[in-house]
Write a structure and sequence with these properties.
Belongs to the glycosyltransferase 26 family. TagA/TarA subfamily. The chain has 13 helices and 8 strands. By secondary structure, it is of the alpha/beta class. Strands 4-3-8-7-5-6 form a 6-stranded parallel beta sheet, sandwiched between helices. Strand 5, helix 6 and strand 6 form a beta-alpha-beta unit. The chain is globular.
């Protein structure tokens, strides 16, 4: 795929996967677009989509609306990349959320960006902040708090984030919570780039390990996670269901 130059994030080329508009940018161009987003100072929600999230959106209109209202949806899951290729609208590569997080922090060192970390446990968030400082010393962790808060505390959490005025907001609260939360409050939060990062803080902090390179190369990180956490099997059932649906409804996959 040729390099794509985009003036506004809304001009990103996409392919709809069962109604979810997935970006067709590679990692490099995705990063360039998000640097522009930070410079714009306008709020942008980034969603790292996988088949489980697409299937959840098909079952829940509210969740689907959150996906459609996001400013950028990147093909995080291998299954999403496969589906786009299968229906003849290929994306150039997988844009893994964990890698995008690190790419943003690395790029942000050139601009002395500030990042706010929200989610996981107090222990993990403290260790994550320490590790981010070690890896990216020119990045300022301008705020952090764990993810254990309910709707009654949302207002205080939003106020704290607004006061910190970060360039990046990473939220680790689980896909069923973090995406709707960001979507609901993104205008109030006003952060240029907001992204749900799932279990990334656990990996950055050292609490868990990312899948070995072999699993990454084979596009089987999902299998590694399943082997490490067998309790995830019910959630993983969405993967074969997604693949079967794509093959069964090939002609309808990209219909909006």
């Amino acid at each position: 795929m040729d390099t794509v130059t985009v003036d506004k994030i809304t001009n990103v080329p996409t392919v709809p996967i069962f109604g979810v508009p997935v970006s067709r940018l590679n990692m490099k161009d995705t990063l360039n677009v998000l640097v522009q987003a930070v410079e714009s100072r306008q709020p942008h929600q980034v969603i790292t989509a996988n088949p489980i999230m697409v299937m959840a959106a098909l079952e829940d209109p509210v969740y689907m609306n959150v996906m459609k209202q996001a400013e950028l949806i990147v093909p995080d899951g291998t299954g999403v990349v496969w589906a786009a290729n299968y229906v003849g609208h290929p994306v150039p590569e997988r844009v893994a959320g964990f890698d995008l997080l690190h790419e943003l922090l690395a790029a942000g060192e050139n601009y002395h960006w500030k990042v706010y970390l929200l989610g996981s446990t107090s222990e993990v968030i403290q260790a994550t902040a320490k590790r981010v400082h070690e890896l990216y010393p020119a990045i300022t962790v301008c705020g952090k708090r764990d993810g254990f808060f309910g709707p009654k505390e949302d207002e205080a959490v939003i106020a704290a984030i607004r006061e910190a005025n970060p360039d990046l907001l990473f939220v680790a609260r689980g896909a069923d919570t973090q995406e709707p939360w960001i979507g609901k409050y993104k205008e109030q939060l006003g952060v240029p780039v907001m992204m749900g990062v799932g279990g990334s803080f656990d990996v950055i902090s050292g609490r868990t390990k990312r899948a070995p390179k072999l699993f990454q190369k084979l596009r089987a990180e999902w299998l590694y996670r399943l082997l490490k956490e067998p309790s995830r099997y019910k959630r993983m059932l969405a993967l074969p269901k997604f693949a079967a649906k794509v093959m069964r409804e090939k002609e309808n996959v990209t219909k909006v």
